Amino acid sequence: MNELNYSMVSEFVFLGISSSWNIQLGLLVFACIFYAAVIVGNFFIVVTVSSDSHLHSPMYFLLANLSIIDLCLSTVAVPKMISDLLYEHKVISFRGCITQIFFIHFLGGTEMVLLISMAFDRYIAICKPLHYLTIMNPKTCIFLQISSWTIGLIHSLIQLSFVVNLPFCGPNEIDSFYCDLPRFIKLACMDTYKLEFIVTANSGFISIGSMLLLFMSYTYILVTVQKHSSGGLSKALSTLSAHISVVILFFGPCIFFYVWPFPTMPLDKFLAIIDLIITPVLNPSIYTFRNKDMKVSMRRLSSQLVSFRKIF
Helices (H) and strands (E) in the chain — how many of each? Predict the structure, then answer.
C-alpha cells in the first residue's frame, strides 16, 4: 500500500450519471428515497429475525446475513453518489477509490457465496426435510457464514493485488458515479490489456460459475421433488421463486459488467444503479412479501413498537 504515495494522481473525478441538472435532481430524489428504503427494509429484517424466536432457524439466519450485506454494499457507493449529485465537481481521493473497489468486491463476493449457502439450505429443507435440523445445525450455519465472508475477502484481496501498485500519472476522469476495476485500470499509465483481461475474467468467471451452480441446484431440487410428488412441485417452485428472483437481480448486472465485450456507458450506469440501489430494496421485499412467517413476525414487531411508543 505504500506504493500509493508515489502516484502522481491524488484524486479521481467522476463524470457522474448525467450532465443535465434536471436529471441529477430527479436522481437525487430517487436515490434518497430508495437508499432510505434500503436502510429501513434491511434493518427491519435483521431486527425482526434477531428478536423473534419463531424465526431463529437457519433460513432466516442466512436471510438476516443477506440483509446486512445488502445494506453495507449499498452504503459503499450510494451516499457518495447522493452527495455528488449536489455538486458539479465530483471527486474522490485515490485511497477512497481503492477503498470503494475493495468493499464492492468484498461484499459482492460474500453475497455470491451466501446465495449458494441459501440454495444449499433450501435443498436440504425440500429434498431432505427429516434431516434438516441435523444437517443445518448452528455450527453449520456459522461455518457457512464465516466461509461466505472469508471467500469474499480473499476474492477482493486477489483483485486488489493486481491493481494496487499500478502507476497513475495522467487522466483521472472516471465515467461513472463510483470506482470499479474496469474503469480504474484503464486510467493507468501503462499497457493494461492483459491485466484488464485477468481481472475481468476473474470476476466474470466467479459470477457466471456461481449463477450456473445456483440454477443447477434449483433445477435438481425441482426434478427431485417432481419424482417424489407431483403435488409438491408447485410448492417447491413457489418457495424457490423468491431465491431465483434475487439471483437474477444480483447476477444479471454483474455478468454484464464483466462479460459483455462492448462498452455501453449509459447502460452500465443504469445496471449499476439496479445493483447498488434497487436490488438491496427488492431483496427484503421479495423475501418478506412471499413469506407468511416473516410477515406475521413483522406485524408483531410493529405492534410492539407502537405499544412501546404509546407508553412514552
Answer: 11, 3
Sign of CA dihedral 252, 257, 263, 267: positive
Cell of 89: 465537481
Measured distance CA(231)–CA(253) in Å, rounded: 35
Distance CA 242, CA 289 (A): 10
The DSSP bridge partners found for residue 91 are: 13
Q: Record the cell numbers describing residue 261, joined without a space.
A: 465485450
- Distance between CA atoms of 8 and 43, rounded to whole angstroms? 41
CA 170 – CA 109 distance, rounded (Å): 31
CA 121 to chain centroid, in Å, comes to 19
Pair 243, 291: CB distance under 8 Å: no
Tell me if residue 78 falls in helix, strand or coil: helix
Residue type at 304?
Q
pLDDT in tens, 182-225: 888 888 888 888 888 887 777 778 888 888 888 888 888 888 88
Q: What is the value of pTM for the model shown?
A: 0.86
Q: Hey, what's the cell of 304?
A: 410492539
pLDDT in tens, 105-139: 999 999 999 999 998 998 898 888 889 989 999 99
